[in-house]
Fold this protein.
Amino acid sequence: MTELDRKDLLGLEGMSAEEIELFLDTTASFKEISERTVKKVPALRGKTIVNLFFEPSTRTRASFELAEKRLSADAVNISKSTSSVVKGESLRDTAENLQAMKIDVIVIRHAASGAPHFLASLLDASVVNAGDGAHEHPTQGLLDIFTLRENLGDLSGRKIVIVGDIAHSRVARSNIFGLVTLGADVTVCGPPTMMPVGIEKLGVTIERNLLRAVEDADAVNLMRIQLERQKVSLFPTLAEYASVYGMNRETLRHMKPECLVMHPGPMNRGVEISQEVADSDRAVILEQVTNGVAVRMATLYLICGGAQREKVLTDEEEVEAPPANREAV
Ligand code: NCD
């Protein structure tokens, strides 16, 4: 598979292993661009992308913006507080107005699960889901899987443990869909009040005890407690959560020495992860962030037509370049 056969990236659910591998392989080829002195290629020259962030974000937003700039796309950023949403404009009207300005891609983060899907069905422009409620966060899932693959190689049969607030975590869901499709052995661990009913139907194992869960793991991915999404209190105190499900020096002792520690950020140091684990050499948390830019470059490139578009660009340039320019070349 060399081309993507979809207009949008809404989630990893239902994506084939071949498609996931196309994203991962394309990411690998884009990663090197960010190491260059001049971090820019013309791959998306002439494309217009709108980043529509209706929820707070540091990493994801900066990462999409950098990916767009490094691919030479023109990008516009809109956040909820500075948009006409505060004047009562609907998501549909916002999106249709942006489309009327002839944009090519909308990257959207929204508190409502399904918001990107709604836009995708409404618009000709491509839609990339940058996190919708507690549903999915496909580019985070892909960058976590890319980081795992870089460190562990083939993921089939590898034990990956996801710990924390599984019920409210879109990162956990995207990881589960992608990892299970690639044949990894996924275990979820967290308080019963934060474990979705029927999660085992997604092909994962539930382990309530953290030390047993991490025992023979190849990687442990820690999820933040999503207090902003919890409508009722689901555990007594943060200190109690940290003592039962937090990863600390003691937990590290129960893990294989080469087991990776991951976190999508933002970290709540002292809650799901202790200072020393976050800063230990087991942690690949900043590698995840580096890979995030490459994953977003690959995603935008594939969504915009990939190699097919590059071919068209090259042909057009050859046909349309004025004679003077050709001589100069
Ligand atoms: C995550 C998110 O927003 O879903 N962060 C991210 O995108 N890197 C996880 C979180 O907020 O805990």
Observations:
- The longest strand covers residues 126-132.
